[in-house]
Amino acid sequence: MITHQYLLSSRPKHTIRIGVLDDHPVIALGTAAFLRGHGDFDVVIESTSVDGFLTVLEQHQCDAVVVDFYLPEAEIDGFHFLKRVRRCFPALVIVTFSAGNLAEVEYAAYRGGANAFLPKSAPLALLGDAIRMAVTAPKSFFTLQDGQIASAEPHRALDKLSASEVEVLRHVATGLSVTQVAERLSRSKKTISTHKRSAMAKLGLADDLSLALFLKEKFDQGYNLSPDAY
Question: Pfam families per the record (predicted)?
Fold first, then answer.
C-alpha cells in the first residue's frame, strides 16, 4: 500500500511539465484543469488532436504526458500510438487511461511503452499520484491496486489459458476451422471444440466474430501465441 507520507516524500522537487491528450474536449479540459490546480504541475499542452499533439510535443519540453488510450478519430491510437510516442520521445513519462476492457488495455499500455495506466473511473487524485510516482521511478510500471497506485507488472489475458487452449487458438488464428485444427493436431473435433469454447469463456468472448477480432488485435499488439511462450 502506498502511504500519503511516501507520496509526499517521492514528489520531484521541480515542476513537472505535462501534456494532456484526449479526443473528448470536456475530458481534456477537465483533466488539464485538475492538474493545473497542483503547484508541482505545469500543463503546457492541452490537445484533442493526435497530429497537433505530436507537433506541439516536439516544440515543448514535457516531463510527462497524460493520454487517452482510445482515440477513434485518429489514424492510430492505443498500442501503436504509445509505441510512436515512446519511439519519438524515449525519456518521456507516459500515463494513459481508458474506460475499455481494463485488463486488456493495461497490458497493451505496458507493452506499448507506457509508464502507468489508470481506468477513467479512478479518482483524479490518483492520476496526480501516478504522474509523480512514474516521474520519480520511470523504469517501473504503475497501476491501480486495491484503490492505490502501486508498481506492478501486468499480465496478459491469454495467461489465463491452458497450454492446450493456447495451442488451439494459435491454429484458429491462422484461419483454420475446428475440423482442420483437429486434423492438424490428430485430436478429435470434440476435444478441439471443447478447448476453443473453454478459451472463449475465459476471455469473455461470446461468438466466433469476437474471437476473430480478439486474435487479430493480439497479433497487432505483438502478442506471442507460439508454444515457446508457455
Answer: GerE, Response_reg
- DSSP, res 209: H
Q: How many helices (H) and strands (E) does the chain have?
A: 10, 7
**Based on the domain organization, do 128 and 37 belong to the same domain?**
yes
CATH of the domain at 40: 3.40.50.2300
pLDDT tens, N- to C-terminus, the chain (230 residues): 444 444 444 455 579 999 999 888 999 999 999 999 999 999 999 988 888 888 889 888 899 999 998 886 767 778 889 999 999 999 999 999 887 656 668 888 998 999 999 988 888 889 999 999 999 999 999 998 888 999 988 877 777 788 899 899 989 998 999 999 999 999 999 999 999 999 988 877 788 888 888 888 776 655 666 544 43
The pTM of this model reads 0.68
Distance CA 120, CA 30 (A): 12
Last residue of a domain, one of 135, 151, 167: 151
Residue 225: phi, psi to the nearest 5?
A: -105, 15
Residue identified by cell 514528489 is 11
